[in-house]
């Protein structure tokens, strides 16, 4: 993956029906990136939910929810080490 001009990594753990899920997406600025973890990975199964161009998902959470095998969306899935490296690349992190 190449580095983007992203300034903020938004780490989202809320289910797509949760109000903070929408608040997170609304708060994203051009160049920001999104990392889906925990129940937020369920958004990958619904193509009607718009996700930013730069979106990642935690692989373990996708596997735990049965989303890894059929890969409903082509987002980069990261292991825990990859997630750690990703967080190191951004000057700002916001957890939702």
Walkthrough of the structure:
The chain is α/β, with parallel strands linked by helices. It has a single domain (about 10-95), classed as Hypothetical Protein Ychn, Chain: A (3-Layer(aba) Sandwich), CATH 3.40.1260.10. The chain is built from three helices and five strands. It has helices spanning about 20-25, 60-65, 80-90, and strands at about 10, 35, 55-60, 75-80, 90-95. It has a five-stranded parallel beta sheet with strand order 4-3-2-1-5. Strand 3 (about 55-60), helix 2 (about 60-65) and strand 4 form a beta-alpha-beta unit. The longest helix is centred in the N-terminal third of the chain and has 9 residues, at about 20-25. The model has no long low-confidence stretch (mean pLDDT about 90).
Short synopsis of the structure:
With 96 residues, the chain is an alpha/beta fold.
CATH class type: Alpha Beta
- Number-wise, the strands total 5
Q: What Rg do the Cα atoms give?
A: 12 Å
- The CATH architecture comes to 3-Layer(aba) Sandwich
Major β-sheet strand ordering: 4-3-2-1-5
In whole angstroms, the N-to-C terminal distance is 24 Å
Q: What is the total domain count?
A: 1
Organism: Marinobacter zhanjiangensis
Protein name: tRNA 2-thiouridine synthesizing protein B
InterPro entries: DsrEFH-like, Sulphur_relay_TusB/DsrH
Pfam family, one: DsrH
């Amino acid at each position: 993956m190449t580095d983007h001009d992203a300034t903020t990594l938004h780490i989202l753990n809320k289910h797509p029906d949760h109000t903070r899920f929408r608040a997170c997406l609304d708060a994203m600025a051009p160049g920001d990136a999104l990392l889906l973890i925990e129940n937020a990975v369920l958004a990958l199964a619904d193509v009607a939910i718009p996700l930013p161009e730069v979106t990642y998902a935690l692989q373990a959470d996708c596997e735990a929810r049965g989303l890894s095998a059929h890969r409903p969306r082509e987002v980069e899935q990261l292991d825990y080490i990859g997630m750690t490296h990703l967080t190191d690349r951004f000057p700002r992190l916001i957890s939702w």
